[in-house]
Write a structure and sequence with these properties.
The complex is a heterodimer. Chain A contains no helices and 11 strands. By secondary structure, chain A is mostly beta strands. In chain A, strand 5 and strand 6 form a beta hairpin. The mean pLDDT of chain A is about 90. Chain B is built from no helices and 11 strands. The model of chain B has no long low-confidence stretch (mean pLDDT about 95). In chain B, a hairpin with a 6-residue loop joins strand 9 and strand 10. In chain B, strands 2, 4, 5, 9, 10 and 11 form a 6-stranded mixed beta sheet that branches. Chain B has a 5-stranded antiparallel beta sheet with strand order 1-3-8-7-6, with no helix packed on it. Chain B is mainly beta. Classes of the chains: A mainly beta, B mainly beta. Chains A and B meet through strand 5 and strand 10 of A and strand 4, strand 5 and strand 9 of B.
Chain lengths: ~110, ~110
């Protein structure tokens, strides 16, 4: 199993501001992932964050909007920049210890943009 | 492109019933399939992982089956309880998509006391 914590657990933000979400895991892991879950929807992968390299973004997501840091093997941040109400979602950090192993998820950050 | 569908989208049953949740996927080139539970506003809890070479996995009252050739998986919940009320998501890890997980839309389950 894996212990994943996220901060903040929830936030209400104003349009045009930015929020940085932190993800901490209990042991070293190579691959970390950031997902978005819009209201009433399933999960969509934003990007894969590997330590020591630039994050790889999925179609529809760009670094300017969702910059990611991965300073070490137990920590990552996702920033939601220049927010609009359409960014209101749950953002989830995730990891997989092996390439095809069980995927684990953090508790999520519930973001509301006014 | 892998597509994952879950039927039904919502299900309401009385306590004690056995029930089946369905998941189908379009590309059978998968490494594994994982079932998750999500409580409202919360993260995902992994329930069962079935590797592509396996037919089923069991954990307590949960049993998940996989028929890779037909692109189907089922999650069987025995003797349902109100505490089972949650959204159940299946996700497929595709070997043709860089090991990426593709999620279904989920089944929202309500077990009534």
């Amino acid at each position: 199993s894996a212990v994943i914590s996220q901060k903040p657990s929830r936030d209400i933000c104003q349009r045009g501001t930015s929020l940085t979400i932190q993800c901490q895991v209990d042991s070293q892991v190579t691959m970390m992932f950031w997902y978005r879950q819009q209201p009433g929807q399933s999960l969509t992968l934003i990007a894969t964050a590997n330590q020591g390299s630039e994050a790889t973004y999925e179609s529809g997501f760009v670094i300017d909007k969702f910059p990611i840091s991965r300073p070490n093997l137990t920590f990552s941040t996702l920033t939601v920049s220049n927010m609009s109400p359409e960014d209101s979602s749950i953002y989830l950090c995730s990891l997989s210890r092996g390439g095809t192993d069980t995927q684990y998820f953090g508790p999520g950050t519930r973001l509301t943009v006014l | 492109k892998q597509e994952v569908t879950q039927i039904p989208a919502a299900l309401s049953v009385p306590e004690g019933e056995n029930l089946v949740l369905n998941c189908s996927f379009t590309d059978s080139a998968i490494y594994n399939l994982q079932w998750f539970r999500q409580d409202p506003g919360k993260g995902l809890t992994s329930l069962l992982l079935i590797q592509s070479s396996q037919r089923e996995q069991t954990s307590g009252r949960l049993n998940a089956s996989l028929d890779k050739s037909s692109g189907r998986s089922t999650l069987y919940i025995a003797a349902s309880q109100p505490g089972d009320s949650a959204t159940y998501l299946c996700a497929v890890r595709s070997s043709n998509a860089g090991n990426m997980l593709t999620f279904g839309g989920g089944t929202r389950l309500m077990v009534k006391p």
